[in-house]
Structure formats: C-alpha cells, structure tokens
User: Fold this.
Amino acid sequence: MALPRKWDALMALRPDVAVISECANPEILAMKGIETTPENCLWMGKSEHKGLGLFSFNGYRLRRFEPFVPYFRFCLPAIVEGPKPFHLLGAWAQNANEGNTRKNQLGHLSRAMSRYAGFLGAAPSFIAGDLNNNTFWDKPGWRMNHNTMVSKAQKIGLVSAYHAMNDEAHGGETQPTHYWRDRTKDGPTYHIDYIFGPQDVVNNAKSFDVGTFEDWVGNKLSDHVPLVLEI
Assistant:
C-alpha cells in the first residue's frame, strides 16, 4: 500500500515491468502525483485503494489479455510489448479468502494458470507477484499446496528464478521476502514472493536480486522486499 511514498525507491530499481500488490487504482495514484496511461498501467481490484497493479517503463507497453476473467483474485494476464516481448501473469494470490481453505479448494492462481494455459504457452511467459504461499505450509492431500502450483509451472517450462539461481529448494529459502507482523529481522519472516520464468531464460539471466531489509523494511517502506530479475 501507499505506493506514492515508495515510488522513488521503485524507480531507483530502474524496472522495465513491475508487479505491485496492494496498489491503489490509477485514478487514486493520479491524485497523488503518479500519472499513468492504459499502455503503461493495468489494474484490477475490488477496493479502489487496494488491488494489483502492473506497470511498464523504458519503451515497454502493456495490453490486457482477452478474454480476461476477473473472478480470479488477483491474477492479471498482460501481453508485454517492447524490446523483449513476453507474456506476464501478475498475481497477488488470495489463497484463503471468501470461504476458501487450503485443504479443500484450489487457489485462484492455480485455477488461473489452467484458464490461461494457452496464453502462457503462446510466448515466453512469466508469473510474478506475492503468491502468499510456500511449501513449508503444505499438508498431504491439501489442494492449495504451494508445490501443486510449482509442479504445474514446471509442466509448462517455468521455474522460480530465486530457487534456480540460488540452488535452493522450495521451503528451504535462506532469504525472506516478507517480514511479517514485527517488521524486524528477528521477527517472523517468510519467502512468499516469486518470479517464475522459462527455464532457458532463467538459466541465462544476467542477475537476480532480493531487496534488503535495511532498504525496504528498516526504512519503513514495506514489510515486503522486491525481487529483481534482469534478463
């Protein structure tokens, strides 16, 4: 939330494309000094102050894939046009809302991946955002297990950039992305933000970085830190 307060820190990362959870809609952003156009900002949400935003910069343009299914909260498919075109499924996964449980229902992201399978298979594709899940929460037989999503991604040739480039297993991450509740280094921390991309693209990526506690949480910008993949 409060993207305008974090905008300068985001711009310092020099992103081509950014996936922002808990983001206000473009009209609210404009009132706070962030001007967007339909070509560089796509947004979905139920509250005008809190949804999912996709942003593009540096000659990249965004076009929402159609047919779009707004039922999947919050999973936003975008055709990214520019120097290195690709498809993007931005996500802010709402895994246990509105009566859903991890035990009995597939998450919105997993269902969106099935619904948009053709879209994800038609071009080099990425799935990125706050997925609110990790394999250390998985339970035998539960439908919303994170490993279910990981396996589904692997079947279409997508792997987590963090895990591939750091040679770490899901559930065994040494770098958190979310400093929950206390917002301190020694408080509860989780790895719940991800970038999944094509295996060959990830293998040949220039770099992958996880933001630091000091730059983002210590400075009171967010309880999450950014993931940055340069390809």
Notes: The two ends are 28 Å apart (CA to CA). Residues 43 and 111 are 20 Å apart (CA to CA). DSSP finds eight helices and 13 strands in the chain.
